[in-house]
Amino acid sequence: GWRQTPDKKWHVTLAIDSGRVKDVPGMTMKKALREIADTQKVEFVLSNNQNLLIVNINPKAKTKIEKILTENGVSVESSSALHRNAMACVALPTCGLALAESERFLPELVRTLEDELDAAGLRNDDIILRMTGCPNGCARPFLAEIGLVGKGPGKYNLYLGAAFDGSRLNKLYAENATHEKILELLRPLFQSYAKERNDGERFGDFVIRKGIINATTAGNQFHADLKLVS
């Protein structure tokens, strides 16, 4: 969204699904950014979470940029906190190492998880979700509160319990989970988190405190003390 700095300049951050700037029916983001670059005196900054910042916008230019974005169907707000914090690698068909979908599957997964979060009253709660098509981990899934790593076509290893700030690795919770199984496993955890968390407690910390998984206290303990579910 929009933020103003003490010097009265404006910045706007756009959530870019998997970092892919493209034109699709109903949202021509590439066209909008091209027009902004051609007509406005601004700077573009890429974030390490695959999003895009348009910075140093003069107050008079803010209205023009808002108009360009709106006319091209580009929203400056994420649909949910989960969407804002979600990341995927390119996987199939771009990467020859991928064992499963990632970039093309993430939007569908986020939409279905948003329904579960809505039911639990958690739509606006930040939870880090990252997905990759193979264990190489190009989207840093092992530092996500919810990490998904492709194991084969349509199947993913599910990891839980990383720190929100990236200071703790997660731990394997379930293997070879399908889309339906992922929802089945996360649904009761979301509901429990909504009802039983402490003030300010992050999802990754909650699943450790409740004994759902053990904390990874060091890198050489990543594969130790697993509590796998089937």
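(the above was protein one; protein two follows)
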Amino acid sequence: MAFACLAAAGLVACGEPRQDADEPSGRFQVSAKSSFPGKQTLAKRSTLTIRVRNEEARRTIPNVAVTVDGFNTRIKLKGVADPTRPVFVINGRPASIGTFPESKEREPKGGTTAYVNTWALGPLRPGRVKTFKWTVTAVRAGPYKLTYTVAAGLNGKAKAVGLQGGKVRGRFIGDISDKAPQARIAGDGKTVIDGTR
């Protein structure tokens, strides 16, 4: 019976309202500015930042979201159970879950969703900006392509459009060098000093 409830509701729990039940339909104008280094090095941290601004005069965006593709790649190799391989890993940060030490990913705080590679930061009022930020480390040498798409909601009813009316998206194309990063440990035994600076 539990399985039937999940299947019938599109993976919505029995008795729970659909996630998109209150999502308004419409097109919401937004703009986005983003940054990510084109030249990367294996094992070196970098930051992907995407700032989304609500360009509407009066309307609040229901749930501003960003989908990022390119953190992983698919390999062509027969016999593997999972052909997905990371290009960038999202770094961890210390956290506590209950009384247990844990590690949480350095991704947009509070933005985790059930959708693959998608993060949402809630309503965005007119003229306001929300910043999506990921701290990542390159783990696979070679060329990379990272793309992102902005949405006004998670379920397709509320759509984000640019000032010219099209989808709001961007991409970064670069290269990940296999050269070892120039770094050393400071005298305190903890601090990592980047030798490239």
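Reviewer note on protein two: Residues 79 and 85 are 14 Å apart (CA to CA).
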